Amino acid sequence: MPGTQVSKTEFKARALEYFRQVESSGEHVIVTDHGKPTLEIRPFRTLDRDPLDVLAGTVVRYDDPTEPVDVEWEAGQ
């Protein structure tokens, strides 16, 4: 979901409008400072979900997880 981008100055002037937009549409708003994203305003979601449901679909790659890793490393003391 792309979200709306607004400058800090514009957000300050129209904050309540953006809050209502986020509440009604469910889409997030990204606040920028000199063109760089600094804040994200998004709807609150409770954490009552099962942690495994939250992680579902997040594994990008899963090749032979029981195979040894081909990397030399030393354990710290």
In a nutshell, what does this entry contain?
The protein is an alpha+beta fold. It has three helices and three strands. The chain has a domain of 52 residues: YefM-like fold.
- Classify the secondary structure makeup into a structural class: alpha+beta
| Element string (H = helix, E = strand) | EHHEEH
Number of strands: 3
Sheet having the most strands? 3 strands, mixed
Distance between the termini: 46 Å
Helical residue percent band: 25-40%
Tally of helical runs? 3
| Cα-based radius of gyration, to the nearest Å | 20 Å
Which topology of one domain does CATH recognise? YefM-like fold
Reading off the top of the CATH hierarchy, the class of one domain is best stated as Alpha Beta
How much is the average pLDDT? 86
Which sequence of strands runs across the widest sheet? 1-2-3
Estimate the strand proportion: 15-25%
Query: What is the CATH architecture annotation of one domain?
Result: 3-Layer(aba) Sandwich
Q: Judging from the principal axes of the Cα atoms, what is the shape?
A: elongated
| Regions with little confidence, pLDDT below 50 for 5+ residues | none
Organism: Cupriavidus numazuensis
Family: Belongs to the phD/YefM antitoxin family.
Protein name: Antitoxin
InterPro entries: YefM-like_sf (IPR036165)
Describe this structure as you would to a colleague.
It comes from Cupriavidus numazuensis. Belongs to the phD/YefM antitoxin family. InterPro entries: YefM-like_sf (IPR036165). This is Antitoxin. The chain has helices spanning 8-13, 15-25, 51-55; strands at 4-7, 29-33, 36-41. The protein is α+β, with helices and mostly antiparallel strands. It has a domain at 4-55: YefM-like fold (3-Layer(aba) Sandwich), CATH 3.40.1620. It has a three-stranded mixed beta sheet with strand order 1-2-3. A hairpin with a 2-residue loop joins β2 (29-33) and β3. The N and C termini lie far apart (46 Å).
